[in-house]
Records
---
Amino acid sequence: MKRAGLPRLVDVAEAAGVSLASASRAISGGSGISPDVAAHVRRVAQQLGYEPNMHARGLAGGLVPTIGLVVHEIGDPYFADIASGVIRSASLEGRSVQIAQAERTPENELAQVQALLRQRIGAIIIAGSGYADTTREATMAETLAEFTLGGGRAAVIGRHHLPVDSVLPDNHGAGVTMGRHLAELGHRRVGVVAGPLDLNTVADRVAGLRAGLSDAGATLTVVSHPFTREGGIAGARDLLDQDVTAIVGLNDAMAIGILGELRNNRIRVPEDMSVVGFDDIAVAADVAPALTTARIPMFEMGRHAVALILRPPIDEPRTIATTHELIVRASSGPPPAS
Amino acid sequence: MKRAGLPRLVDVAEAAGVSLASASRAISGGSGISPDVAAHVRRVAQQLGYEPNMHARGLAGGLVPTIGLVVHEIGDPYFADIASGVIRSASLEGRSVQIAQAERTPENELAQVQALLRQRIGAIIIAGSGYADTTREATMAETLAEFTLGGGRAAVIGRHHLPVDSVLPDNHGAGVTMGRHLAELGHRRVGVVAGPLDLNTVADRVAGLRAGLSDAGATLTVVSHPFTREGGIAGARDLLDQDVTAIVGLNDAMAIGILGELRNNRIRVPEDMSVVGFDDIAVAADVAPALTTARIPMFEMGRHAVALILRPPIDEPRTIATTHELIVRASSGPPPAS
DNA sequence: AGCGCTTACGAAAGCGCTTCCGCTACGATG
DNA sequence: CATCGTAGCGGAAGCGCTTTCGTAAGCGCT
């Protein structure tokens, strides 16, 4: 197949009456070129409909403008929303996005990041909670540091302790808000079905909850299960023996699982038991009963991450903190009178 | 940054005692090389931990093994599930996946495909219904034909009439099954909230429904709205005046919207009105009431599509037809006695 | 044994770009 | 006015791979 037509950088250079080297500097924003010439070259390139060849660029040592996105599992609405935000923003900037799934294991996450870097990808976004496991986090930090040193841009969503720009959901604050909400309703014995305890997200939300609850002298019982609907079901079973009046799912998927398990046990929500979640995924409003949850702006977080990556780096890593919002629906209410 | 360590193809060639050319042929499966030598080279490459450089490959005129995936909107659970299947399978084969969103417009879809091709991507999967708009489909067909002629592999999920391998959900069959289900329950006046009527998926499902319904002499009222939860809400409003006893959402998102709108109008489901959907997205089981739906195996469709593009092409496009399954939950029942 | 044919392999020419290096021309400096 | 430093630009060397093209070796045939 002859891709005859596509203009190359030489064509642009020729048309603009400059050397190939200057044209390259003009297009890819290198230094050592006068603004006038650069502008002229860019105009000519525009006219010719020039599109840089990714592969040539990658080969020649430059970084490719593709954005790599690592999520745990794209089928999870939390990550799907983030991905949607990332792709939307990237697409507006003419950047393409490569997605890799870490399948919720840290080894895989690291492997996926390294695979992305081997492709000389210019920017990488890692979404999802970090792990408390410090040796693994250290390796990741090292990998990313080397990458950014080499001119790569990196950002993380929802994890701290990594030396790159980050978008941080207000997990602790959301926990506090939710804890207060339950305490205000009158709950004094609360259970939480947490995800794996070595996840930062889990630790932060639980700590927030505990803080919000303890002001009112309420107790928190923690059980840990996978961060999924099934995990929620298992957790609900654990907590059913525990004499609590409210169960918190640490994300909406878990909360939905909890709702299902309670329904199976003919326990009414919220009359007999309150159930709340985190995130406010799209369906939270549609389950039965509609779920009270702490909204985390996933889509916007994705967009923020792209914005960070497109901005030139500064010495200190930047952090964008996002807000949370308590969405009170039908699944939370006062504890039973008894 | 010195990426000193990474072995190159020359290194492999040298270590194996063959020429660069032979090594290339051995690795990228070219012809004109004896099986023995090829096997030997591959073994050496393996030992050295050789990883081909995408960009060099792309530059030299080959196609890059990356898989491009075009979906309408990754935030939609239907596409998220497909994407998850695609990424999972691709990852097992060591292929990376680039995702582009068409944002539900045909122009965008075509533009995204062309952007992908410009990157010399070796394989492309287009997910989502095709459009009845024939001129646009013709352009797409032409683009893909040229691509496959140049050695690219393409597959589509859920659309016909394109001259490439395809994975086809049983939309018509699912419609028939659902129509029969409602007819058997006793419904005689059924409404359907359809997506845009120029989508193949919509046409097929509606036709199936009508067929399944008409056997029992039932009538079908069609209204059309965007293929989203909000579209479902709007459609439900339309149909409320229409004296129907069951409303079909053409996908689960719409059905969930319908459920919400009926709840707002204090119409009980399924006592006063049955509601059913299509797809069986993860949350369909958790909404109130749990949604009766026709299950389409999205995740598996994604995997099938990857399998198709990894298989060498044959003259005739292949088709993998998938099954559907009626999942009866709580949202469908007999029509009110009146 | 000699002929042409096929097949396995090596040498070398790029693919389109970035970047190092060197040159020129200018303004600043003493 | 002579000298040095610097900014702007062009020449040219690769980046790692695929792919002609050419050659040598192996085959069956007359």
---
Amino acid sequence: MAPKSPEDFEKMRAESRSNILQSALKLFAEEGYDNTSISQIARDAGISKGLVYNYFDSKQELLEQVVHKGLKLMPEIFEASDRKIDSSTLPNMLERFRKSLKNDRLFWKFYAELLLQFLRNRELLQQFDMLFNEFIELFIECMRQQNVTNPEIEGRKLAAMLDGVSLHYMFDDDYPIDDIFDDIIKTYVPHASHE
Amino acid sequence: MAPKSPEDFEKMRAESRSNILQSALKLFAEEGYDNTSISQIARDAGISKGLVYNYFDSKQELLEQVVHKGLKLMPEIFEASDRKIDSSTLPNMLERFRKSLKNDRLFWKFYAELLLQFLRNRELLQQFDMLFNEFIELFIECMRQQNVTNPEIEGRKLAAMLDGVSLHYMFDDDYPIDDIFDDIIKTYVPHASHE
Amino acid sequence: MAPKSPEDFEKMRAESRSNILQSALKLFAEEGYDNTSISQIARDAGISKGLVYNYFDSKQELLEQVVHKGLKLMPEIFEASDRKIDSSTLPNMLERFRKSLKNDRLFWKFYAELLLQFLRNRELLQQFDMLFNEFIELFIECMRQQNVTNPEIEGRKLAAMLDGVSLHYMFDDDYPIDDIFDDIIKTYVPHASHE
Amino acid sequence: MAPKSPEDFEKMRAESRSNILQSALKLFAEEGYDNTSISQIARDAGISKGLVYNYFDSKQELLEQVVHKGLKLMPEIFEASDRKIDSSTLPNMLERFRKSLKNDRLFWKFYAELLLQFLRNRELLQQFDMLFNEFIELFIECMRQQNVTNPEIEGRKLAAMLDGVSLHYMFDDDYPIDDIFDDIIKTYVPHASHE
DNA sequence: CATGAATGAGAATTCATTCAT
DNA sequence: TATGAATGAATTCTCATTCAT
């Protein structure tokens, strides 16, 4: 009844949009992109099918937006807040990653799915590539900090290992994720414990 | 006049079947399972749509057969021929793996795709799970051979790293795959360096 | 501007659903279940193929719904309105049946078709079986009313004869349906003649 | 090895043909015409799919031949061997029919299926119509023999009842077929009892 | 802004029929 | 005569997308 202000509308739009993205992320992660229909997403978001198209031009664009939103979470996990890399950066990052893996299994399943989509889809690949390289660069930088002999190689190995561990963890409910992380942290951050 | 002999038929069948599996592997790997239609597979194999169903009951079964065939390659890559694990097993395996990654990129792309399919599909998961665990066990056994402190953890880390490296390599055409492998071999096979 | 109200949608749905059932009944009856494609039904109903699946999960379910709707007509034909069986029940029923046979030839053709489907399809058989037995029981009850020596047998004979007459009538455009019915009524309702 | 004489070939042909017809009858009766594939028939007959087309031009023609062969059995059941109709014709016929119903349930199921096919298929209808009318005429003639008041009507009623009883019997494994037949025979052949 | 009915292109699957041998 | 591989048209069913209200 009360006439809504432009701001109200704006807020509603943002909220609806966010709901849709939320539902899409969940369903894409659980069922896979191809096995998720717009109807399901709409139903899950509690809105009508048609309305989805009010916010996103196509299913493909919805995917891209979900990815976009998802990738923005990555830096929060991996980047040190002060952007300065020091000896605590890597252990902090690893801890945050471990925590995220355990808490946001859904997101990481989706991330795994995306890896595959990316291998095929040029549009998505570009969005992702930059971030992906930043992420590797970050590890390389950490290695450099630690004065390892070959930071480029060591950084890539660490990145690969973490991706591999994530995959295996998603596969196997009994995966000893904590043991593995404890060990990785110990290995890659040896200075942390003694001297 | 002369009716075809059973051998003739057998040969035809084997050939067609093999063609179909070949095309299916290629397309599943390149486009993904869901984005590949039976029509495409048939077209690629140079046969009619209907014939595919002469050899495979369903698209799902075709996938399973492709997987089955693919998984048979794994042991050749990872297992020591004499089944005895000694100090040369791991370097041999790693070399074979490196070579396979570079030669059979298609297969490994597909393998990556499968990881995701597996996360959802119970049928496939079972076929795969055993092999997957064997593969991890193998690395653990190698670690045990080398008297590392914690073979269980070290084996899993190595397995994860190799999966991660494979993924990254598939992503990035400039990935320094040889440097990484050289390093891994050097790290995990320290004895190799000093004679 | 104004969104459609739930009532509007409800009305649209009911109408479309009814159209589809109508067309399906007609075509199943005329062509047989197996010889009728969803496309034909859609075309006949003046809608798109896909819409049929908006209302019915499968062709099989469409059949079941058509049957369900059709079977609801049966009681109107065969049951005495007051549920009490007396000497007028049978002649009334026979008259209603005669009238229905002549008016609803389509339905009865379909009913005949169904008999055959039923011989194979367990799902449908159950829906039908109850009604079928009720129908025979009804005749038996009428016979009992008339104090015939062996009402069980006589009831079944009458039921069989009516099914047979229906079939023959559907076959033969010159079938003397009225003569037959007049005779049956005279035979089975002897009291009608002498008061 | 021994060169086959033309007669041998002829006999083999006849035998193969008969096998196919046998299998087709069985499968059509059990599964229905539409649900039976040529492959099934060939498999059941122990020959190749292609060979079926050596004997029959099409599935439709195979159906027609099965019908043709089947209908030839009818006279054996219904006609008095000496073609003369007397007071024993009807009871004999009814006994033969009862026996056939119980022994050849498969055939009668198929006959029921055919009734429906006939209602749609002009080709088949013609083959059948003649026989169908002969069959009714036969009953009418029997009634005439018995000096019933209205042989035309009574004959048709008997024919209808027998068709109906057959259907019901096929439906219901507990159908009291013998009681019904005993009663029919007693009713329609009253003279049989008192001399 | 919101709804869900309606569309239609495309996918998997079946199967009668053909054909080379 | 006999085989079964191969074809392709037809069928059921799904779902992204449009549109009238």
